[in-house]
Structure prediction request, 488 residues.
Amino acid sequence: MTIEQILYVGTNVDYVTAIENEAPDTVTVKTTETAENVDSFPRDAPDSVAIVDTTSIDRPVHVVQSLADHLETAPVVAVIASTTDPLVVFDVLMAGATDYVERGAPSGRPTQLLAHLEATSENPASVADGDDAEQRFRQELKARRRTEQRLTTVLDRIPQPVFYRDADGIYLGCNAAFESLCGQPREEIVGYKTEHLQNQELADICEQHDETVLKTGEKQTMETTVTLQGEQRHIRVHKAPLTAEQTGVEGVVGSIEDVTEQRRQEQTLREQTGNLEILNRVTRHDIRNDLQVVLGMAEVLRDHVDEDGKEYLDTMVTKGHHAVDITRQARDLTETMLDSEFGTDRIPLESTLETQIDEIRSTYSQAIITVEGEIPSTAVVADGMLASVFRNILANGIQHNDSAVPQLRVWVQTTGDRVTVHIADNGPGVPDDRKDEIFGRGEKGLESSGTGLGLYLVDTLVDRYGGDVYVTDSDEGAEFVISLRRAE
Prediction:
């Protein structure tokens, strides 16, 4: 049968345009945003189809029911966001939808939807008033069986186990996934109460909260563990009232979601978080404190070492300071990774940057750090870890510098809503093919060759702040550029 008229109920203009563009010229597309405006649509229109776009209207189940009550012969097709929510599918079908399509699936796209609608419109028209009672009864019985068969087909396409029971706890239906979960055929489930299930533990879980749903008419969700096929599984059970317009709540519809793997991943994450916290404490206290003791004793030894030994002592002190920097980087990176409630604030740029420059000067006395111009007294969008960003880049310019006297130049530029900090060194520079790699970007992350904790931390933090960091070539070596947002 060829479709001559389509009634679209919804507010998605782009979807309507797509239907109009792909429909034949002989098809008229009418649109309305609510079910109250469908009176102009013929009640008896055998060559027509109604589309209810549930993704763009309020009270979609009410709209479907109003249309189904108004239209005598035209099928009603519901467009839904996803079939992964079995309760939505069940609600629109129980409200009178002839069928449904998923917006993102092929059948939900306009071209395929029109073909789907033509197939839907093949359903026989209602029995004429002149037919005798027996013929009308046979027609109604046939239509009811088609509806039940369609509902069964729909439910079986849902991957999660779904069931529905009446107010007395008797199963009215279920899908294939629920059969598989119970280990019983549908014939041994439908028409019986939960005690008829072979898995009594599962039966008790399915029955829990039924009374609450029936009394309050509100949805319920619970999580628990159950033994299935000899294995402990963690499940989440969703329940909602099964309602009728005249009689109200008549039963309960439920779905079961296996979240075992999700719980295992959460447990693994908790264990990893605990290990990181232990590493953070060890790094922050034990290792760093021991290194500070070693460095202090090394300085005491300066007056007791001859000229031949001073070179070795200087190397030991330099490496010791580098190791202290690594422990600090590991600490900062661990705290960043453990920060689940990250938020930004107004951080003063001038004092933060100057403090880190002074600290690096004190740690690396052989280096020369020059500040060109003035550092603006403005605030940027960051957090307390901004100091770590500057400290790591300053230290990197000295630690990887092969000049006899490491030199750093620092200057700041302000343009519009951006503040850009430049840190240039007189080192060997960074080859073009490694300018991204040194930040640990790409698939390998920290495993990327040449990547250090410090620059990986810098990239992570600046990205959190909504800024940008990159390295380019300077007159003598490398120039790191940190772009941050000005705080309002």
Q: What stands out?
A: The chain has 13 helices and 17 strands. The two ends are 64 Å apart (CA to CA). The chain has a mean pLDDT of 80.
